[in-house]
Amino acid sequence: MNTADQALCAFAEKLTLTPDAMLKDDIKQLEDLGFTQTAVHDAVQVIGYFNYINRVAEALNVDLEDDVKAWEK
Prior knowledge:
The protein is mainly α. It has helices spanning about 5-15, 25-30, 35-60. The chain has one domain.
């Protein structure tokens, strides 16, 4: 995994686990690695959507589809 991918994963993890701790510097770090403002915006939208839909699924105890295997821990 390259540096940009690692930074994006770290950004996603921080946004997921501690959204109130996000700083302008978190965005700047991505921009310094070549991400455009549009790319950062798109990433935030996708990360936020998956966080939302996962919380809805957990709250409603949605079962996995029969052909989907659970991730091993």
